[in-house]
Amino acid sequence: MQYRLRWGWGSLFDCGPHAYTRLFSGIAGVDAVPVEVEVNTGSGNPAVIVVGLPDAAVRESKDRVATAISNSAFRWPRERTTINLAPADIKKEGPSFDLPIALGMIAAAERAELPRLERCFAVGELALTGEIRPIKGALPIAVEARARGMKAVVLPAQNAPEAAIVEGIDVYGVSTLREAYEFLSRRREIAPIRGNAASLLAAESPDEIDFSEVKGQHQVKRAIEVAVAGGHNLLLIGPPGSGKSMLAKRIPTVLPPMSLDEAIETTRIHSVCGLLNSTHAFVSKRPFRSPHHTISDVGLLGGSTNITPGEVSVAHNGVLFLDELPEFKRSTLEVMRQPLEDGTVTISRAAGTMTFPAGFMLVAAMNPCPCGYFGDPQRECRCSPAQIERYRNRISGPLLDRIDIHVEAPAVVFKELSGGQAGEPSSAIRERVLGARALQRSRFEGASTPPVNARMAHKRIKECCALDAASTEMLRHAMEDLHLSARAYDRILKVSRTIADLAGSEAITSDHIGEAIQYRTLDRRLWV
Ligand SMILES: Nc1ncnc2c1ncn2[C@@H]1O[C@H](COP(=O)(O)OP(=O)(O)OP(=O)(O)O)[C@@H](O)[C@H]1O
Ligand SMILES: [Mg+2]
Ligand SMILES: [Zn+2]
Fold first, then answer.
1. What is the pLDDT of residue 207?
2. Helix ranges, 396-467 (H)
């Protein structure tokens, strides 16, 4: 008997030896690409053939699916069966095609209809037992499904909460192949998972860490406030144990809270990277990422054969903390320049070119010298000037140029650490940051770059950072005495604009310029 099922786009109809299911793969970076899975049974020697540019993981899917089907007490087609993944010109990767392939095989073998597959996408990896394993990219898959007019998505139960933040589509979580099959063939009911990004964002619990826990370090905290207020990158320099890591971790607590769009954008990236699960399905707090200095370029920027986002993208809308900056490979730091400049990262591989969002605040930390104690009043530095120079030269000039604020975090003295007085809470700092950000938003209205002083277009510097005679003179002196570069000059102007914004001052005064000059520690050649 000739038998054909068509599932999906239209209604089910019977006109030949076909069975279709559809699903998505996350292969196009943070966007999902729909792939149609056709299962065709016909006459010929019993065999199963997979066609349509599948990779090894997809070809192996055949054996996984066969075992899962038999362990779920379903039949396997006895005829010659062809599984086609369309469109044929996109390389299909990974195990997430298991579920639609299995559904197609069962339907073909059982001569069954799956009425609920109409306007529905299915995706999931199968275990040999017939259980459904989580996949990467559930959120972008749900976004794409809705964009294509689907009514529902059926996906692994663990991924359902992250997909459910997409409104206007029903999300069904399934744990086993049998459950999926019975639901799609209307033999079982499953309640759709409901999520709401706005309410998840509103219900966000307060941060567990706070700047009030950091004793002393008033200057560093001030520098952090300025950096966050103006969107400037920051470098902390100090001896071991001076609290650099402690301070950096608290920076997300003074950044403005995430907007709904930002949260969804970041969640999408985390979804593609497989960082979400049923208890952490939505990224509502700004990410803080702290990759170790041994990280590969691919780990940092993204890439590898199937092009997944790297740390610079996982940190999107949050903080990327590079601790022990000089220990990072020089080439690694060089490749950071594009994301720092553009807020995106472009990766070229044989599989194609892909651009990911990578808009993060860079916070770096380093010791002042290899032993860590250069300039420390308590302990003696054992490094030679040449060693210090070499250590410092490991950071490339162009990278350093993109870090507007350098600040020294001296060792905290015992008196400060043991004193009972708590520091200012993050909430108070954040209030001032929000005030300064509001001024910048109105200043840069309609600009294509983010509305922060750090991203001010070169041609606007003159107009936005006008100086009076005294400030001009002060800056000229500083430039000459400290041998500052032209780039440093622009940076000082932008930072002084932020300092004036924090003070609610329209004019930039010599106090503001004076403070901004202090934040060019590394240009001042304190080292040798
Ligand atoms: N200002 C401070 N207030 C309160 N505790 C502090 C302060 N500075 C340091 N500490 C304590 O010292 C510990 C070590 O600090 P932290 O790891 O942040 O130092 P670090 O500068 O990153 O050192 P390293 O260079 O070794 O990485 C912190 O976990 C904290 O308990
Ligand atoms: Mg540290
Ligand atoms: Zn030293």
1. 80
2. 397-401, 414-418, 426-443, 458-464
In this structure, which ligand is nearest to the CA of 417? 1
Give the helix/strand (H/E) hosting 518.
Answer: helix 510-518
Q: How far is the CA of 412 from the centre of ligand 1 (A)?
A: 9
Nearest to 21, CA basis, from 100, 138, 102, 110: 100
Q: What is the C-alpha to C-alpha distance for residues 5 and 41, in angstroms, rounded to an integer?
A: 10
Using alpha carbons, list the distances in angstroms from residue 125 to 98, 168, 173, 308, 393.
Answer: 5, 25, 13, 18, 48
> How would you class 494 by CB atoms within 10 Å of its CB: exposed for 0-12, middle for 13-18, buried for 19 or more?
buried
Q: Given a cut of 50, is residue 3 above it in pLDDT?
A: no
What are the extents of the domains in the chain? 18-195, 211-425+433-447
Assigned CATH class of 18-195: alpha beta
Q: Which pLDDT score is estimated for 396?
A: 73
Tokens of 137: 């990219």
DSSP structural state of residue 107: H
Atom of ligand 1 nearest to the CA of 239: 25
**Contact at 8 Å (CB) between 180 and 132?**
yes
CA trace torsion 427, 429, 434, 436 (10° rounding):
170
The class level of CATH for 211-425+433-447 reads alpha beta
CA of 376, nearest ligand number: 3
- Residue 280: is its pLDDT beyond 60? yes
Q: List pocket residues of ligand 1, CB cut-off 6 Å.
A: 214-217, 238, 240-246, 367, 412, 417
Handedness of CA 407, 229, 396, 329 (dihedral sign): positive
Mean pLDDT, the chain, as a whole number? 84
Residues within 5 Å of ion ligand 3, judged at the Cβ atom? 369, 371, 374, 381, 383
Q: What is the mean pLDDT of residues 376-380?
A: 84
CA of 451 relative to ligand 2 center, distance in Å: 31
**Which residue out of 242, 379, 415 has the highest number of ligand 1 atoms within 8 Å of its CB and is therefore the one to mutate?**
242
Mutational test site, ligand 1, from 215, 246, 322, 371, max ligand atoms within 8 Å of CB: 246
What whole-number distance in Å separates Cα of residue 359 and Cα of residue 446? 19
* Burial class of residue 227, CB neighbours in 10 A (0-12, 13-18, 19+): buried
Give kind and range of the element (H or E) at residue 84: strand 80-86
